[in-house]
Design a protein that fits this description.
heterodimer, A: alpha/beta, Peroxisomal Thiolase, Chain A, domain 1, 31% helix, globular, B: 87 residues, mainly alpha, Non-ribosomal Peptide Synthetase Peptidyl Carrier Protein, Chain A, 54% helix, 0% strand, PP-bd_ACP (chain B), ACP-like_sf (chain B), Acyl carrier protein (chain B), Ketoacyl_synth_N (chain A)
């Protein structure tokens, strides 16, 4: 059985602090504007949320695509710190609580854009990239012509960093995927040297790969991905 | 001192609810705070209820008719704080 191939039609990425690149699809802005979201909704989004919503608006201006969002840690600033507030018997902020769920960014985007399609949030213990492609493939085989896949992550709060092997860099990438036109994303077994160097792929690794600066390898799945025209 | 309290509440609303590009002058004391007027939503109502509890020691029932009346506009909110503040 052959797996349906996935094509990359377009992408956007955000990585503040990255050395500026002349690729217009990459933003290195410290504070994204979130201009695609009305001010009354935007006030609830942090920099990551604003960046993701603006990327989605550019890739799916008619708000008609199924949206997938993967993040290993989600919004740790909200979720993990909230646990400490509970332990200290401090009342929780309802607004922060409402945005602590894993699909909060897509939820705000869906309200702002009017997108009524499926929204799916994924966490996969370091296999987020592979899981995103698996889910996207499922939707495409099921008849969707395009799917948007978002991968984002940010450092966990300082008091949790000792539990993290490789700290996440704040970054996000959004890809419009299809079965048709675009560059083909192919996976193959990773080589031993690749596996020896690899760590769980982060959004910043996907950005490196999209820019042709580094291979993309998932050690847990033993896979490496390539982009071919 | 109704005006001083109203101004204080305007700042409380703007700061607590992180309203962007809204100044105290933009909040009309007679206009609705929720849906119409300022355009706040149900999460804002919960957040504002928490802020009233923290700042003035006022506890409200989340979805009672009475709470709805208190939250109708800035004037009714100021009247509530004036009557029930415990500080």
């Amino acid at each position: 059985m052959t797996m349906a191939s996935i094509s990359l039609q377009d992408w956007r990425a955000w990585q503040p602090g990255r050395v500026s690149h002349d690729d217009p699809r990459l933003s290195v802005a410290e504070h994204p504007k979130g201009a695609s979201v009305p001010a009354m909704l935007r006030r609830r989004l942090n920099d990551m949320g604003r960046a993701v919503c603006d990327m989605l608006a550019e890739l799916d201006p008619r708000a008609e695509c199924v949206l997938l969002h993967a993040s290993r840690h989600g919004d740790g600033e909200r979720t993990l710190e909230m646990l400490y507030a509970l332990a200290e018997d401090t009342p929780l902020s309802p607004a922060r609580f409402s945005l602590s769920v894993h699909n909060a960014m897509l939820g705000v985007h869906s309200i702002a854009s009017g997108n009524r399609r499926s929204l799916q949030a994924i966490a996969a213990s370091g296999c987020e990239w592979a899981a995103l492609l698996s889910e996207a493939r499922g939707y495409l085989i099921d008849g969707e012509t395009q799917v948007i896949a978002v991968f984002s992550d940010a450092p966990v709060p300082a008091r949790f960093t000792e539990h993290i092997a490789i700290p996440a860099e704040i970054s996000a990438v959004a890809l419009r995927l299809s079965c048709h036109a675009g560059k083909t994303i192919e996976s193959q077994p990773a080589s031993q040297p690749q596996l020896a160097q690899a760590h769980a792929p982060q959004p910043s690794d996907v950005i490196d790969w999209l820019l042709g600066e580094a291979p993309l390898v998932c050690p847990t799945r033993g896979l490496a991905w390539s982009l071919t025209s | 001192m109704a005006n001083a309290l109203e101004l204080e509440l305007k700042h409380l609303i703007i700061d607590t609810l992180e309203l962007e590009d809204v100044t105290p002058d933009d909040i009309d004391p007679d206009e609705p705070l929720f849906v119409e007027g300022l355009g706040l939503d149900s999460i804002d109502a919960l957040e504002l209820g928490l802020a009233l509890q923290k700042t003035y020691g006022i506890k409200l029932e989340a979805d009672s008719e009475e709470s709805r009346r208190h939250f109708a506009n800035l004037k009714s909110l100021a009247a509530l704080v004036e009557a029930r503040r415990v500080d």
